[in-house]
Give the backbone structure.
Amino acid sequence: MKRAIIDSKKCKSCKVCEVESKCTMHAPFREIPDQKMWIDFYKCSGCMKCKTICPNNAVNEIIQPCNGKGKLGW
């Protein structure tokens, strides 16, 4: 299963995050306004559109295999 992950070293904490505003799954979030963005793995569909949207190239993909019992090992 593929999911997006934000590299905190590359994230510039943009006031208006393009990834947050354009994600149809509402997976990117931050707990306080000046905090760096995070991806909620349970909401992320793995489409990776955010990877092309982020102007700072802060979004990468992570692949997590199934644990063999029909569940993801997130």
Notes: The first helix runs from residue 18 to 22. The longest strand covers residues 2-6. The helical segments are 18-22, 49-53. The CA atoms of residues 25 and 43 lie 6 Å apart.
